[in-house]
């Protein structure tokens, strides 16, 4: 709690911006980079807006604003109560400006936060190759490489997953995929939903 109170003293740096539109840009940039942090370009732009010479001057302000934004978005605070987030030592002009901006974006940011929680990566590409193909091999298997895309991440959200499949486990997987295909074709029919048992020898 003491840390948060000490950070409020950095909010007046926002008054060094040329306009409240600049403050709005800063808040939007912080929200856009909520998962990744500000990159060098964002930091340079914001420092120039506020006339700051180094990141050491910027970082406490960024931390204070992020705490404020998280409270506004993730805590049970309605639009008309946002002004109560500020202690008395914050200048009335700053309170008024930040309150209006947080009220403006609260619903949009909450919707984004909800999407962050429910969005799953999607399959972007799939490749495979055979392994263990020697003449004496008694248990050949395929290496499957899945490339996944996470659209909720600001930077490149690509990830790769590799796994191996034997003939038996491939059969189990195909059966499951056929059931999924049928379910997607007829979503009202839940009779196809079932859990496939583990197969002995699964890699």
UniProtKB/TrEMBL annotation:
Region called Disordered, residue ranges: 184-203
Name used for this protein in its record: Protein FAR1-RELATED SEQUENCE 3
Transmembrane segments: none
One Pfam family from the record: COMM_domain
The organism of origin for this protein: Dendrobium catenatum
Span of domain COMM: 119-178
